[in-house]
Write a structure and sequence with these properties.
Shape: globular
Number of strands: 2
Order of helices and strands: HHEEHHHHHHHHHHHHHH
Radius of gyration: 21 Å
Number of helices: 16
Strand order of the largest sheet: 1-2
Oligomer: single chain
Number of domains: 2
Amino acid sequence: MSKVAFLVPLFPLLGFLINGLGRKSLSKQAIGIIGTGVIFCSFLCSCFLFGQVYAGSQEGQSFNSVVTLFNFISVDAFVIPFAFQVDQLSVLFLLIITGIGSLIHLYSTAYMKSETSDHFGRYFAYLNLFVFSMLLLVMGANYVIMFIGWEGVGLCSYLLIGYWFKNANFNYAAKKAFIMNRIGDLGFLLAVFWLIFKLGTVNYSDVFANVSQLTTVDITAITTLLFIGAMGKSAQIPLYTWLPDAMAGPTPVSALIHAATMVTAGIYMIARSNILYTMAPGTQTLVAVIGLATAIFAATIALKQNDIKKVLAYSTVSQLGYMFLGLGVGAYTGAVFHVMTHAFFKALLFLGAGSVIHAMHHEQDIRKMGNLKKYMPITHITFLLASYCWDTSIFGFLF
């Protein structure tokens, strides 16, 4: 299992290096095959890990395997290993990231075909780097490795939102996303320092085993600071305004980063830290209140939008609010379930929107669209299926 766990993030990293360094010499076809192929290989490895976890938990016992590669930081008795944790929560996110990611990469080979080979390679290199960072985030066995991936996806978000960097408005949107994410990241970083100061470790297993050594003030402060980090990454009030503007990037980017993976990082982090949050009822109440307010507020804004991608963007913010509401009331399983369903139907909606935008010659105003069913029957069916899944997943989450 250790070798397979190592291969999952290694493949996207290799894709990033090959496409990034060879973007001027490789053909578009080669870039597309490499960029998509490495993510598909990671998906196959993730399926193997899922099978191992499933087989190991057949008797109702929790499966948890930590794979240590090397010591990342070692100062006297203080050690932070570069380690991956494979369990039920991480493998579920691995399947989401690599499964949907490989399909979006495949979609991108056609969507971005009008780009020059140089820019085409740059695009796929950024996508591969993003997937590598997201895999680090969910596979890390401690908060430091998670933070490395956390910062990596923030960087890739900036690069991909501002992919068409000659447009000043797109550059502004990229900088806005980067800065607002840094505000939340400061809270995450302070929480990590607090854990090191109080417990002398950041490993999940050690932190959760010694949580009784923390006072009520410590636990409340740490969980609140972690939640501030989640608010920035997962676009909750008041750090939500960057997400609608992030639609400046290519539509596959919106599907991958701002619907299926990156914006769910905050959900993953709180679900991973559920032991801490269960012992901090005050913070749980805060999470639930912010989530409920975001769900209602963002859905209301979405009703008045005319841009097809911004409608989906504000609905994403609203759905993330539902997830935080679930986390806040202790329904961790329900929140993670909605993460999975939302990743599939919202990614499909964004890809459908990209198909419509392409057919409308890059027109995004829904007031200028209509009666497209007879011209785009396949997109009509996929959009309808995604909308149906949206309704049923909300029903399942609530009831």
